[in-house]
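Hi everyone, sorry if this is the wrong subforum. Our group has a chain we'd like a structural model of before ordering constructs, and none of us has done structure prediction before. Sequence below.
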Amino acid sequence: MIGIINASPLIYLSKIGALSLIPKLFTECYTTLIIKKEVLSDDNVAEFTVLKDSFSSWLLLKEPINRQLVDRLEELHIHTGEASVLALAKELQDNTGESIIIIDDLAAREIARTLGLKVTGTLGVLIKATRLKFIGIEKCKNFLHHLVENTTFRISSALYSKILKEIEKIYNLFN
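Answer:
Right subforum, don't worry. Here is the predicted structure as tokens:
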């Protein structure tokens, strides 16, 4: 499956030391130039080297061809980078049928769903990596804890509880 990834999952996964999960979960990973510029805009952040290395190893740059779609998406008041990855995801899905967009912004996720795109986010990456046994249950819980306690990533307490229950379900399946 092809993964098309937005800035926030790249940033947050790198902040918690989980960015290396992405190329394990997807056969190909794409983003756009505007996303690359966004995530590499501050070379003083701790995760800069990991992010930069991802662009030279497994994360491919591809621009959407349909500029009209990008423009229409921007009119929906989402970030330009989100509009670019949404348009790219739509094009890749139309061409391959096997793609998923990795995006956290709620408005952009809703737009993705209306475009018929498969959607996941930072949390979905952690859950999928746990289901596929790339990381263990405790490692997933540690990543989740680090994500909500040590970064600006925000989720409701209800969603946090739901994710912990999902992790427990995975644990129960394996044991």
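For your construct planning: Strands lie at 2-5, 28-31, 59-61, 99-102, 119-120. The chain has two domains: 2-123, 135-174.
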